[in-house]
């Protein structure tokens, strides 16, 4: 009986000590399909919304210990300005062409045990373009605890250092790992946000005690496969929602919705070609507000002719 208990205990400890952190093996290039969507407007259907969508292939390859390259291949940008969800996305050919040279430059990033460190890129890369890469790196950010399946922590991400809840479930028969994490974007130590257009407003302490005007949350769902030194991300889906209700309306909150999907395609032996550019430290995974204004989605409240307006 003692032997059985000891065997079960050892098996439990062994299963808990498995490394579930994503791993990208050296001398290999991992190919993913990537899609990101950003929409702003009111949540009800049949009303105007504005936004953008990015579709691209993503290559990830190791160049040194704990240092990796990330490159976007054939990115396409689409814009939306119409009645949701009836009107379609329209290809933003000029914007895609204008940023093609920027997107062709791979970025470097530090990555160890699922945690993204410093980000490096040439000074010529726009901050806006670098933020697109940060959005992808934000998917790779996974603080895996070997001895716990359910836990909470303050996790750094593109939005700041926020309270994050993890749930990990392993399906040993199917050789799959299901991981879900949720972020409370109202509970952040260093939330990345910027107020503008409020030069003549005053903060109301009593109003904030009744309820926050800006609320946000994000959920991440992963399907992973155990590998030799970690895990391979097969699919990752991210949904982030921000609601702004300045007057505490019951159902009149404007919202910004962001979605990302990263899907594994294949592993190639060809390495990523690094151009002869001087890479400099460009911060971390945290979102950086850009100074350039390339093209911003603007919500059209009254639409009679969406294309003309």
TrEMBL record:
The entry's keywords: Disulfide bond, Glycoprotein, Signal, Storage protein
Pfam families according to UniProt: Vitellogenin_N
SMART domains on file: LPD_N (SM00638)
Signal peptide location: 1-15
GO cellular component: cytosol; extracellular space; yolk
GO molecular function list: lipid transporter activity; nutrient reservoir activity; signaling receptor binding
Disulfide bridge positions per record: 162-188, 204-207
Limits of the Vitellogenin domain: 24-309
InterPro entries per the UniProt record, alphabetical: Lipid_transp_b-sht_shell, Vitellinogen_b-sht_N, Vitellogenin/Apolipophorin, Vitellogenin_N
GO terms of biological process kind: cellular response to estrogen stimulus; cellular response to heat; response to estradiol; response to insulin; response to polycyclic arene
Coiled-coil stretches noted in the UniProt entry, renumbered to this chain: none
Protein name: Vitellogenin
């Amino acid at each position: 009986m003692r032997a059985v208990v000891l065997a079960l205990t050892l098996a439990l400890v062994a299963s808990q000590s498995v490394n579930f952190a994503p791993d990208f093996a050296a001398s290999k290039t991992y190919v993913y399909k990537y899609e990101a969507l950003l929409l702003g407007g009111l949540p009800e259907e049949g009303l105007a919304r504005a936004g953008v969508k990015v579709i691209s292939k993503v290559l990830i390859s190791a160049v040194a210990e704990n240092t990796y390259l990330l490159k976007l291949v054939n990115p396409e940008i689409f814009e939306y300005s119409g009645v949701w969800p009836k009107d379609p996305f329209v290809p933003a050919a000029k914007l895609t062409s204008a940023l093609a040279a920027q997107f062709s430059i791979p970025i470097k990033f530090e990555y160890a045990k699922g945690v993204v460190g410093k980000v490096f890129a040439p000074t010529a890369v726009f901050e806006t373009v670098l933020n697109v890469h940060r959005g992808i790196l934000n998917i790779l950010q996974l603080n895996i605890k070997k001895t716990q399946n359910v836990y909470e922590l303050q996790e750094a991400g593109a939005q700041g250092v926020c309270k994050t809840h993890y749930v990990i479930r392993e399906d040993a028969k199917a050789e799959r790992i299901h991981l879900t994490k949720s972020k409370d974007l109202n509970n952040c130590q260093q939330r990345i946000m910027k107020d503008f257009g409020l030069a003549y407003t005053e903060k109301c302490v009593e109003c904030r005690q009744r309820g926050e005007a800006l609320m946000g949350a994000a959920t991440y769902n992963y399907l992973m496969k155990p590998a030799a030194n970690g895990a391979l991300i097969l699919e990752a889906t991210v949904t982030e929602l921000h609601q702004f209700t300045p007057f505490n309306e019951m159902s009149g909150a404007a919202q910004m919705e962001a979605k990302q999907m990263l899907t594994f395609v294949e592993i190639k032996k060809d390495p990523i070609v690094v151009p002869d550019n001087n890479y400099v430290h460009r911060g971390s995974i945290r979102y950086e507000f850009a100074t350039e204004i390339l093209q911003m989605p603007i919500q059209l409240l009254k639409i009679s002719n969406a294309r003309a307006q």
